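Exercise: predict the structure of this protein bound to beta-D-glucopyranuronic acid.
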Amino acid sequence: MIVRREILKSGAGALVTAGFAGMAGRAGAQGKMVLKATDVHPLGYPTVEAVVRMGKKLEAATGGRLSIQMYPSMQLGGEKEMIEQAQVGALQLARVSVGPVGPIVDELNVFNMPFVFRDIPHMNKVIDGPIGDELLAKLTNSPQSRLVGLCWMDAGARSVYNSKKPVRTVDDLKGLKIRMMGNPIFVDTMNALGGNGIAMGFDQLYNALQTGVVDGAENNPPSYESGKHFQVARYYSLTEHLIIPEILLFSKASWEKLSKDDQALIAKLAKEAQQEERKLWQEREAQSLELIKKAGVEVIVIPPAEKKRFQEAVKPVWDKYGAKYAELVKRIQAVN
Ligand code: BDP
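Solution:
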């Protein structure tokens, strides 16, 4: 926090030195820049690994002039804090969910709507295509974002887990306090499903589950597994109510200090990271599911007829927010 305030006070010139380098010693004379990157997940997690690999390629392509230093495992705070630090240039790369980005640029909320994608391949097609590019550009060009949207990543589908009881039907959610990411759409979604949605940072969640502040949460298998949430909430119901891609953000303040060539190189490597992460994701998702089953978690498959009831239950969310995104939703649905 102190660092952030100092950077804010010290003005644009200092952003480059301070922001690009908790690295003063290594920067400067030789024009070396170490880009600071962060992620809530630990080393080895697909999103983290994809950015680490991107850094290795960047280092190779620039003869070591540009590199990426990864701060994994919420070392720089939760996603809200990560975004704020990117906005002021205190770090360069933040890999976050689109969840907390929707409140910054509303168009991106279309990806945060429940059941907006038919399935994960559909989501991947959309982010790989023109809609994906347009929404990244919307974020980059929005004056209030102070961010550059570099690429998307796969985060599978989010499903509900809790410590109280097996949730097999939408009615079973009634009365359960379920943590959601900080975005009113998600709280409304959980409330529409009959649960009690509570907005909270990912960094607070393990403790909240352990102490019973919340009964459960919702996430994809790798996050549920690697965050060790399965140890304290042992019922995992494959509701798949949200398919939200991840996004890799770059600080606009820092971006504007880069040469056009360096910008183009980073943009190209980010696109490669989008594809590379997808392969890592598919492997990790299968491993995580296996691991949680072996650990004795009850994994509950929701049959199609019941899944339909979940979809019907979120209609109030579509009534409240859907009209704003109607055009985009039509185009998303048309992607085959
Ligand atoms: C995970 C995302 C991460 C989010 C987290 C959450 O990878 O970016 O912070 O969910 O629920 O799936 O907050």
